[in-house]
Amino acid sequence: MAEQPTPIWDFHGGLHVDDRKAPSKASPIREAVIPKRLQLPLQQHIGRHAEPVVRAGDPVLKGQLIARASDYVSANIHAPTSGMVSEIAELPIAHPSGLPALSIMMEADGKDRWAELPEPIPDYQEADPADLRERLRWAGIVGLGGAVFPTSVKTNVTGKQVDTLIINAAECEPYITCDDRLMQEQPAQVIAGADILRHIVGASRILIGIEDNKPEAITALRETIDTRGQRDIELRIVPTKYPSGGEKQLIYLLTGVEVPSHGLPLDVGMVCQNVATAVAVAEAILQGRPLISRVVTVTGQAVAQPGNLQTLIGTPVAELIEQCGGYLPGIHKLIMGGPMMGFGLHSDSVPVAKGSNCFIAATEAESPDPVKPSPCIRCGECVKVCPAQLLPQQLYWYARARDFDKTQDHHLFDCIECGCCAYVCPAHIPLVHYYRFAKTEIWAMEREREKAEHARRRHEFREARLKRLEAERKAKLRKKKEALAKKPASGKDPKKAAIEAAMQRVAAKKAGQEAADPASENEKN
Amino acid sequence: MEFPVASSPHLQGDNDIQRVMGQVLLALLPGVAALWWYFGWGVIINLGLAIFTAVFWEWVVMRLRGRDPRPVIADLSGILTACLLAIALPPTLPWWQTMMGTAFAIVVAKQLFGGLGYNPFNPAMAGYALLLVSFPADMTRWLEPSVVSGHSLGLSEAWNAIFSGVAPAAGGWDALTGATPLDHMRTELSREHLIGEIRQSAVWGDFGGRGWEWVANWFLVGGLFLVWRKVISWRIPASMLVALALIAGIFWVIDPDIHPSPAFHLFSGAAIFGAFFIATDPVTASTTPRGQLIYGALIGVLVFVIRTWGGYPDAVAFSVLLMNMAAPTIDYYTQPRVFGDQEKQDE
Amino acid sequence: MSVLLTIVTITLLAAVFGLLLGYASVRFHVEGDPIADQVDALLPQTQCGQCGYAGCRPYAEAIAKGEADINLCAPGGETTMIALADLLGRDPLPLADAEAAAKPKSVARIIETDCIGCTLCLQACPVDAILGAAKQMHTVIEEECTGCELCVPPCPVECIIMVPIKETPETWRWPFPEPSPWIKEAGNG
Asked: How many Å apart are CA A144 and CA A353, to the nearest integer?
């Protein structure tokens, strides 16, 4: 048995929310139809946006690189199907701002022809972790749980000792079932991916953390682990409590170790990866495939046939909804991600991106509009549920007063925006919104400050340069003046003066030699 | 298709302020019933007067501020303040004093600071303190519990007493009113009587005054209901009562002849009522877990200090008001250890 | 006798404290003008001169000396004014030029087809953000431009325009939650 009765630590706070997973949970993953047009934002990951390597009018094949990682922390983007690049322009993306961003638009030709792919690496255990990481980097794999941090960067543990790889299979947010289905249907890929990741980071064991509300997935994974006979993989069942899938919360649940505030799991010798990422890793290493599709949960009371779809990255959300039978009357909101941490979409013309795990078409009844908040009565309900052990009411107070220094004193940046505080708030204060407001304001101020610092340096440099030029100009002028000052004294025309000066120089030289000669003669004597 | 957007979370729990306040009001019922049982209809008339005054002034102030008064009145916080104040008042207090105290609580202590959530002081206790320093004689003239005096004030008697100052028929004021147990104990101790002698009087029950201790018991029931419903945290009442009992216990052990027992302190005056209903007012109390323990404990200590050496027989109002001032400082120094904070991890 | 004792004591005390103060002034002596540096650090460094001084540093020095008000910096806006008020313990003031402060942040752009290559704008730019040479077309390095507008008036052919900086998903900020169009008014909603 891979599973052992091990203690599960309990993190502070958290919530038991109605999981609402039933509508999509029962439906097996089906293949979504290839859309006619795909929009591929250049920024689907944390870090610098990718640089396009194709131009409008270029034909592309499925899996062909179309935008290259432009920095260490960046990610490649590949064509999800074959067709032609139609334009590179600012197109709508899934972002809370509703602002567009530079994207590659392509027309599918419907043939779905593959480009030439790199060789699979079936004997990954023998391979150099750096080569495997290079493959992940090529495949454009990012954290598919929603954080979209480039996996090749996260698994670069050079100089650090890693003993545990944590596979995050908690899927604690209500509604979402894509990871659950993936584990039920492709447990072998999940475990294979986890094993590859373990090899890359050099961990001695794998802990899979899964909530106890997914018995089918637990059975499937357990069978696979038993079949593989790997003793270094432990399946740990954690009680269902939101947000057990938060990276730091899950690590604490499984190991009792707290990841330092402002720190990374790597600091405590751990790396955490999501199940969907593990599957993408397995595909990149064992099949040589880039990340061009993902499983997406489409659910909510306002969609006709909720389910899980293997969807090409770049598929417009409207088409995805269409394939699920379209909207039902009463559609009020479209949410990307879970209902606790996801964000509302302004429009369904945005495409599915690497981080899109779920779309919820919600009726007003299931996700009511915010009401006018009452004043905070400092009841402390938020303190009780905060998994980061912050004082949400104080953070709110200072964020509202725009006292950003104080918000940072109260550890604003330890807030994971899980939404527990706002959920329980009896005054219905949009607390998370306040924290996001404060965070983005602080970032903006930071950018301004950096820009000002940069401008100051350039200005000082310019001043110094101007001063130097001025000094040089003055020096020249002075020389000229000196030269001019000598002229009237001699009272001769310049040519004669020059000749005279030359003669004087010769005379001086001679005199110098004569003066030196006796000395040398003395030496000889 | 376009959609409206809002920040996450997109779900909302079913808790709201009205519900919180409503539960506190509900929890007051057993205690109020006990008060009515022992002290008659004056208690109910006081409640009615205070609630009426509170609603009236909230309406007026919100109108003056150009806001809609309905949600403010509907959140029940003003009504709760009125009830807490009315419960603390003597059952035959002249009507205009009750109204004045309530108006002060609502207008000055609450609304002038910005309304619910912004008041630094517990409004009910601010109103109580105003009345106590302004009308000390009326405020300390309590009826004797019906179990002691043998007479329970009827509706019309209470009405006449409150609105026209007419003494009840049966024996006049002197026969029906008396010092509260705390006051009694205090006066007798100052006359250098020993506790053993003092307690021989018929007014004493098991721990505190007869009748009085049962009122405290029923408030305890309501308070435990609130703790069970998680409307209030257990920390403030527990730490306050434990601190009060501890310090009273120390002195009692030293000299039980001149220091009443801890049980007397707990079940007399407003200790129980204050611990569960007054000190726990979230707006003015400390909100950090450790801070609540300190806040409650210091109230307990202050209650004992003022009762024993101060100028007033009971001290919950002043102790709470004093600690209200300290709450922000306590909160500042008792911030919980943030998850993953390395420096404080060893604590 | 006791009078004498008092005088001696007081004198001794005065001497001790005098020495202490003297020592402290040497021991904790600070070079330069740290206040001006701190003020300068809060200014946006656009070097635009809208405050009436030749740049951010001169304005900072003027503030440090108490010669200038803290409300003159238009690009810094209210945020900078409040920060200065906090730093210096002065009362916040309404901005001297609220209109200029309300302008959206912009960068200069040269309409390159109109540029005659006169280099006048190059000389005006306080941060060397304009690239070009005599008789050559000039261009603004957008990342370096502080939006000070000092290059606009010298241009003889008026080919420099100020373009508001576009908000992107990366620079977008969450709006202040209340009052918010996202939140329905209770009662009428």
From this structure: 10
